[in-house]
UniProtKB/TrEMBL annotation:
Transmembrane segments: none annotated. Residues 13-67 form the HTH lacI-type domain. Keywords: DNA-binding, Transcription, Transcription regulation. This is LacI family DNA-binding transcriptional regulator. The lineage of its organism: Bacteria, Bacillati, Actinomycetota, Actinomycetes, Kitasatosporales. Pfam families: LacI, Peripla_BP_3. It comes from the Bacteria. GO terms for molecular function: DNA-binding transcription factor activity; transcription cis-regulatory region binding. InterPro entries: HTH_LacI, LacI/GalR-like_sensor, Lambda_DNA-bd_dom_sf, Peripla_BP_I.
Length: 347
């Protein structure tokens, strides 16, 4: 069956496709897939061999191949399991997704992966084996290899990222560049001239957007310094970056962190180095989870409703599954929420 849909990767494999390629009836394919009597051993082996050549994943029922998914939503995240359990953003984000899935009696299939190649293999497996109706894609990179591969598969998906990163997928995003710029301007208005930012990996699209905005704002305002350090978002690396900054000859008087976990770790580092927050150094978090209000002093933060963000992502995916054409939906821009960890620089 030269030129079939599955050869071009544009649709999910169906019983009809396998039956046509193998030269048997659809009933025979169903019996073979479900390991039921009614076909000979040689016919069953022939059908399964043909199906595997066409991209079928074993151990799935004919029902999954014949229907358009099960309503289950896939989410793959490249994070160590221990770190994910401590990361407030993803806990709130996932809870937002679940709040919508529960209303629809659906489920979330969550997997942690080591790298983007493992995620690509996983997404292919999920889609071809009928385990998911669609997927939520996160942590986009510039020239992200998932965009062309998953688009060719025809897998419905919603992307969490700036539209410049997400290709043809429906994108939900926040204007992180504007948020960073407003943060730098606020700190400059307090009198700070030596700023620093502790962010994520430079290959991540949203980290690159924040880094570019931070550097541009520092230049625009004519500030003395705007150092930036990359981390893996963990508390350990956030603490290490903070020690490096605070031990430098011209230490910054204010530091912006890309998540709450690193900012909390920074409070401990400042204390161990005998520095007062905010009298000696101001610290700002990003996301504004409950952690920010449990510390002493409480953490100023770039605040947005992550739970609502997750819920809107899930709703957008169901819109896509329902045939609605979505290009991009901008979510509310994070806003600066001042608390006890920011103030004027030391004299």
């Amino acid at each position: 069956m030269t030129g079939s849909r599955e050869e071009h990767g544009t649709a999910r494999l169906t019983i009809r496709d396998v039956a046509a390629r193998a030269g048997v009836s659809r009933a025979a394919v169903s019996l073979a897939f479900n390991d039921k009597p009614g076909v000979s051993a040689s016919t069953r082996a022939h059908i399964l061999a043909v199906a595997r050549e066409m991209g079928w994943e074993p151990n799935r029922s004919a029902k999954a191949l014949g229907e358009r998914g099960t309503g289950t939503v896939g989410l793959a995240i490249c994070r160590p399991a221990r770190q994910l359990g401590l990361e407030p953003f993803y806990m709130e984000f996932i809870s937002g997704i679940e709040s919508v899935l529960t209303q629809r009696s659906s489920a979330l299939l969550l997997r942690l992966v080591r790298d983007i190649d493992e995620e690509l293999d996983l997404q292919r497996h999920w889609w071809r084996s009928g385990q998911i109706a669609g997927s939520v894609l996160v942590d986009f990179r510039r020239e992200d290899p998932r965009v062309p591969v998953l688009a060719q598969l025809g897998m419905p998906a919603v992307a969490v990222g700036h539209p410049s990163l997400t290709g043809s997928f429906a994108a939900l995003w926040t204007d992180d560049g504007t948020a960073v710029t407003e943060c730098v301007r606020y700190l400059a208005a307090l009198g700070h001239r030596r700023l620093a930012r502790v962010g994520g990996s430079a290959e991540l699209g949203h980290s690159a957007i924040r880094a570019t905005a931070f550097a541009a704002a520092v230049r625009e305002l004519g500030l003395d310094e705007g150092r930036q350090l990359a981390t893996d978002f963990s508390g350990e690396q956030g603490a290490r970056a903070t020690r490096s900054l605070l031990a430098s000859a011209n230490r910054p008087t204010a530091i912006l962190y890309d998540n709450d976990l690193m900012a909390v770790a920074a409070l401990s580092v400042a204390a161990e180095m005998g520095l007062r927050v905010p009298a000696d150094v101001s610290l700002l978090a990003w996301d504004d989870s409950q952690l920010c209000q449990l510390t002493r002093p409480t953490l100023s933060a770039m605040s947005h409703d992550v739970h609502h963000f997750g819920a809107e992502v899930a709703r957008a995916l169901y819109d896509v599954l329902g045939g609605e054409r979505i290009t991009a939906r901008q979510m509310p821009t994070p806003v600066f929420t001042p608390r006890g960890s920011t103030g004027p620089p030391p004299r």
